[in-house]
Structure formats: C-alpha cells, structure tokens
Design a protein that fits this description.
The protein is an all-beta fold. It has a domain of 67 residues. Helices cover 0% and strands 34% of the residues. The protein has no helices and 6 strands. A 4-stranded antiparallel sheet has the order 3-4-5-6, with no helix packed on it. Strands 1-2 form a two-stranded antiparallel sheet.
C-alpha cells in the first residue's frame, strides 16, 4: 500500500502538504510487485491510483485466487474505510466495494464462509 505520505512535490507547486487536511493533491495507490530475489529485482505488475481517496495510515493489499486484487484503505481522510475488489487490468474494474464511515477496518481479509459447506 502506497499511502502517498512521502510523495515529493515541486517547491512552487499548489500542493503543499503543510496546511489543513484534506489535500486534493494527496492520493493513495495500490501497487503490486513481482519480486525476483535471485536477480534482486522488483517489477511493477499492477498499479491503481485510488482517485479521490487519501489513506493516511494502514491498509493492506491481497491477490485473490481468481486473479483479482482486494485492498483496504483503512484510514481514509476525512474519516472511514474503503475495501474494494478490482480486476487486475490496465484499467481496473471494481467487482465490489464496501465503504464505512466513522470507523476503521485496520485490515480486511477474504474468508470463504462462516458456515460449513457454504461458499460465497
């Protein structure tokens, strides 16, 4: 999860993250890298900009068995959490989304079912 907290802006830009939240120029991204430890390389294989969402803290990303990506933006400014499943394409499509205000999902994980023999 790239919260965007340490993103650098030009000195004279209109975005100066020293003022009052929220900043329209702050945004978070969802990157996925393929790591080759032997070659000591990292290749960016997916990167979605969470347009209009700035996640100030926490969150997680998970690759699902069906090839989709699920991510949790748990500290969205001004308040709340957003969990999304998206397709892993150049222009990702949202499969489903859950938004909650006034509370935070520190982590979100997909579970098959709470009921034996039932799959969702």
């Amino acid at each position: 999860m790239d919260n965007g907290d340490d993103r650098l802006y030009p000195a004279k830009s209109t975005c100066n993250p020293q003022g009052t939240l929220p900043f329209s120029c702050l945004y978070s991204t969802v990157p996925i890298f393929r790591i080759d430890e032997n070659a000591k390389t990292a290749t960016l294989i997916f990167h979605q900009k969470a347009t209009g969402l700035y996640n100030a803290w926490g969150g997680n990303i998970d690759s699902l068995a069906n090839g989709d990506v699920e991510y949790d933006l748990c500290g969205v400014i001004p308040t709340g959490s957003v969990v999304r499943e998206v397709t892993m394409e150049k222009d990702p499509k949202t499969v489903w989304s859950l938004t909650i205000g006034a509370n935070y999902f520190y982590r979100a994980f997909r579970i098959p079912s709470l009921y034996p023999g039932v799959q969702w």
